[in-house]
């Protein structure tokens, strides 16, 4: 039970077609009648192909749209296959996820992530900045060192912390059904908040209706980034309801 202002970010990853938008009716109906909606911010991050149609779908609601990545270049340019923050904004995005581990795995460096964040902020988008350790880093007790590095380099020369939310997503927890232990997660979130002062810090990684009550016992988390479970409106609704029950 909480009456805190909480973020719920639906990260659809590379899933969804125009047909999937029908499933949002259920969510829209729920959210309209949801009495606690003043305490919560919902951000749907669909694949780029669905940003604009989703914006239209959510037109009369408070629900916002985020993109899942952007190019570092603020201007137009000869970058085949890429999309920059300005273009995402022009089709209705207000947020963008940057530094997700699935993109870091493809070769995104901390420096590139830093450039992307700067570019997104300059273009007027808010940023969901992802950090998190691998299982090996966790087992060898390198989590804090790694998070420290990701924060220092990722946020290098950035002052605009009102427009950035940090999402702590341990890589071993994404899509695995595993979540960190309560005490451990509390301490890691605290560590991030000390390192990145005045930032909201969310948790992401296998959040679902079964473990949400447990996660809600950790009172320093400012919200959740939800992958798999966010594609099923029933599960997504359940997670939100249980947070405010
Ligand atoms: P998951 O994904 O909820 O499916 O673990 C979270 C994420 O990658 O943002």
Structure description:
By secondary structure, this protein is an alpha/beta fold. The protein has a single domain, classed as TIM Barrel, CATH 3.20.20.70. Helix content is 36%, strand content 16%. It has ten helices and eight strands. Strands 1-2-3-4-5-6-7-8 form an eight-stranded parallel barrel, surrounded by four helices. The termini are close together. Bound molecules: 2-phosphoglycolic acid. The site of 2-phosphoglycolic acid has 13 residues, from strand 8. 2-phosphoglycolic acid binds next to strand 8.
Element layout with pairings:
Layout: E1 6-11, H1 24-33, E2 40-45, H2 51-57, E3 64-67, H3 85-90, E4 95-98, H4 101-104, H5 110-122, E5 126-131, H6 135-139, H7 143-154, E6 164-168, H8 182-195, E7 200-204, H9 212-215, E8 223-226, H10 233-244
Parallel strand pairs: 1-2, 1-8, 2-3, 3-4, 4-5, 5-6, 6-7, 7-8
Helix pairs in contact: 1-10, 5-7, 7-8
Bound molecules: 2-phosphoglycolic acid.
